[in-house]
Amino acid sequence: MKYYVEYMSSWFDLCDSKQHFAIDVPQRALSCPTLLNAIFALSSRHLSLKGKHFDTWISNHYHEQCLQQLSSISSDSQALRNDDLLAATILLRTLEELEVPLLGTDNEGHLLGIQVFMTAHGDASTASSLRKAAFWIGLRQEVTMAVASQRPIKTSLNHGFVDLSFGTADDDTWANRVIVHCAKVVQFCFGKDHHSLEEYRALVEYEEGWLCARPSSFLPIAYSEPDPSRGEVFPHILYLNHAIVIGVVHCILAQALLMCYDPTVPRTQELAPLSTAAVAVSMPPRKLKIGVAGLGRMGKRHALNFFQSVPHAELVAVSSPDPKEREWAQEHLGASGVGVYEHFDDMLKHAGLEAVCIASATAVHAAQSIAAIDAGKHVLCEKPLATTPEVSQTVVDAAARRPELKVMCGFSRRFDESYRDAYAKMQAGVIGRPCVFRSQTCDMLDPSGFFVAYAEFSGGIFVDCSIHDIDLALWFFGEDGESKVRSVSAVGITAVEPGLRKYNDRDNAVGLIEFTDGRIVHLYCSRMMAAGQEDTTEVIGTKGKLGVNTIPVANLVRVYEPTGIRHEVPKNYWDRFKNAFTQEAIEFSDCCLDDTPVPVKLETAVSAVRIGAALQESMITGQKIWFNNGKRVERSQL
Fold this sequence. Notes:
CATH topology of the largest domain: Dihydrodipicolinate Reductase, domain 2
Shape: globular
CATH superfamily of the largest domain: Dihydrodipicolinate Reductase, domain 2
Radius of gyration: 29 Å
Helix content: 40-55%
Strand content: 15-25%
CATH class of the largest domain: Alpha Beta
CATH architecture of the largest domain: 2-Layer Sandwich
Protein name: NAD(P)-binding domain
Pfam families: Fungal_trans_2, GFO_IDH_MocA, GFO_IDH_MocA_C3
Number of domains: 4
Organism: Purpureocillium lilacinum (Paecilomyces lilacinus)
Family: Belongs to the Gfo/Idh/MocA family.
Strand order of the largest sheet: 14-13-9-12-11-10-17-18
Keywords: Nucleus, Oxidoreductase
């Protein structure tokens, strides 16, 4: 339901400023099982198509529940006047459309159902506002299907609330007027063999009248020509709201059809109708053209990930100031046409580049993110955004200036199957009310001295290492968890790397976060594990406990020997979470292509850095740090 309300409901309310499908429909669903099941069927199907680990069986199950009732009401006049069932049918028609590429055909079953519902309600004067809203959605669906299959419109346009006048009205009404006009044009083009010149001229006359009478709000508020150097073909046109865009699109469609079916122009050959399956198959999915900045430990992995494992992304460029890293890129990626750049700013100018993944040194994360945003690119930035909350906030501010762009900080554990399953179980109440969150990030010992050199720029072990655990705690305890933090304290030691002290860092540390509601977060981070990567989490509730990876394993192989039984452990963070990194890249790419919200709020990344930096300071100074409503205060101010 949350996914439907926050994301999918807007699909239906494009020409409905009253937002019936976002506000009214969810409330009605509480007392109408069929409508509720329709919401669940549609949402779960879309989530499964986006690769979010929803089994397609879930959608099929809810869909079947709907069909059991809807299949028996075709002759029940009372049921056909039920607005809740009509709304359910609207949702199921969208589900039907989603499944066309999967099934290879469209039987239009629910589209026909919408028409039956609308025909059954003969008196337009008594039609509810929800029924009217449903009619307009159904008509848009019908126009789309009729054009795709080049067939006549089946929906009746003879309803009392259909307004084709040019009188003063809101944007929704003006959009609906031209949608009806478009439906009439479709009917003219595909509804008969003989195209009357008189009818054609009447349609052209209405179109001209609509264009002359439309309010000034239907004019673009911004326009820019396409930039061929970026692979752009179409201009950028910005309108005030969705209803205007839908109206303009239907107007353009009507104009194109009238141009093709102008009876005054001789036609040498009839166009053969295309099936919707053929249309779907003939249009290959668009891929997000992305570049990767930085080719160090994580950068190489991100580059190969986007290059090999993300279906809807195409790696087109990489950048690194290090000549050895660029040499690696030329060897592994250059032969496939990936551009290799020394300077990040030059990569941003790569033709057609749409997004960047920033995996460079932490010290330049914020600057490169802001530069990419200012250049109009979507951004996936490795954690953290910066080593201080103040600098991290500058990225949030830059993103706010370009709301059309997707900007996300990569907290990979949110995309791990086990953590998602644990979160779902916690949300379902399996362990009661969660009270204690205990989590650790422990790297395998690296005797090369890498972590000592890295500490100069990393922000310290809590900002670099425990940042994942802090983000998990905010996720599990609520996205606004930081505003409920009461205090943080930490201690640390240098057990194997005394050189860390000159950078105010430690190789082992324990942190404690107290929330105002009494909940506790316990963190442990280390750079000296002997066996391998040991990242584990426990969530303790009033009725039970959830454990994630409490016994780290690289795979399911066990070695049975006279001395005992042993198994291997992941050697590094990537080995443990490589599937999560792939899922993160997939979901980020899909958000950019589909214009949907990113799964991790950017503001949360600032909160995580604020808490991590406070823990780091507490570890060095030995002082407990206090907060009030997200702001740091002195103990005496509480």
